[in-house]
Amino acid sequence: MKIKFFFIIILLLFFSASADAQCAMCRAVLESEEGQKTAKGINNGIVYLMIIPYVLVGAVGYFVYRNKKKSKISKEQ
Length: 77
Fold this sequence. Notes:
Blueprint: H1 2-14, H2 24-31, H3 37-76
């Protein structure tokens, strides 16, 4: 089980895709700009904001897993 989980994590890390996450209105306004510096900044900001919920859910999942593992070990003793 642990090996399967490890390989899934490795695959997800190596096969990541770049995402440009803009709404249609933002894209239309930003495409008209020369140099695209503002568009790149907005894309980075959106991706940064998208990461935070995943990190929080992952942290909660880790703590639940750790607590269940601790309670399972204490029940065996």
